[in-house]
Design a protein that fits this description.
By secondary structure, the protein is an alpha/beta fold. It contains eleven helices and eleven strands.
């Protein structure tokens, strides 16, 4: 299955959803007309039990995503038509759409501004060695906010602040991003999608229910103190005890066969 609409390309293969930001002539910049499309895609990823993981990347070799389409922002006089809270306004990333299925971000080229949202909200980041990361919010008179908070969780604070405050004058090459932990796997450009797909398939072989709850335990722990996070993760563990996969996994192991996971 493959669909292409409003600067997005969407495909599904072997339990993996592939989302491509498809505006290479505009640096795969985010346009307001893409908002409804990306929201619909994430809703399908979230709600369709056949899908067990997602990979998001950019079209072409030069850019992953250069952020908001500044020309459109200038023409419209702003980014959003509304003035509501974050949860009512922004739906670009898996976390913003309450997707509790693993997302691999395959960074094929330059990432800037709002494009960093996909990186900081991904579960695993794979990057081509030629990729580059920078933040340009302050260069165009905007506040470095949501993406930058995510950067501060994945990078040393000083580095996150330097990216935020220096703007386009500070570019972080992928090897340095890998050294600092923003990138989890560094590969040759030709190997990018194969590596992202391999990771997605490794995840798909595991219990979807256990994977989802494990993700929630880890991500939600970032919002809590240590003791509270332990209690929350323990509650998720107990919740899973009544799930069929909790018994199927050990049985399959003992019987030396592949498990047959339940479809929720």
């Amino acid at each position: 299955m493959a669909d292409s609409v409003d600067g997005l390309r969407y495909e599904r293969h072997d339990h993996v959803a592939y989302i491509t930001l498809d505006r290479p002539e505009q640096g795969n910049a985010l346009s307001p007309v893409m908002h409804a499309g990306i929201r619909a895609i994430w809703e399908e990823v979230r709600d369709d039990s056949w899908i067990r993981a997602a990979v998001i990347t950019g079209a072409g070799e030069r850019h992953f995503c250069t952020g908001a389409d500044v020309a459109r922002v200038a023409g419209a006089g702003g980014i959003s038509l509304g003035r509501g809270p974050l949860t009512d306004e922004t739906f670009w990333s898996p976390r913003q759409n309450r997707v509790w299925k693993p997302t691999i971000c395959a960074v094929n080229g330059l990432v800037a501004g709002a494009g960093l949202q996909f990186v900081v909200d991904a579960d695993i980041v794979v990057a081509a060695e030629t990729a580059t990361f920078l933040d340009t919010h302050v260069n165009v008179g905007m506040v470095g906010a949501m993406e930058n908070v995510g950067l501060a969780r994945r990078l040393p604070l000083g580095t996150a602040l330097r990216m935020t405050l220096c703007g386009r004058d500070f570019r972080m090459p992928a090897p340095r991003a890998y050294e600092l932990g923003l990138v989890d796997e560094l590969v040759e450009p030709v190997d990018l999608m194969d590596t992202a797909t391999e990771i997605a398939q490794q995840i798909c072989r595991n219990s979807p229910a256990a994977v989802s709850l494990s993700m929630q335990a880890i991500w939600q722990s970032l919002e809590m103190g240590y003791s509270e996070a332990l209690e929350y993760s323990w509650a998720l563990s107990r919740l899973h005890w009544s799930h069929p996969d909790f018994l199927e996994g050990p049985r399959a192991f003992v019987e030396k066969r592949e498990p047959k996971w339940a479809v929720d």
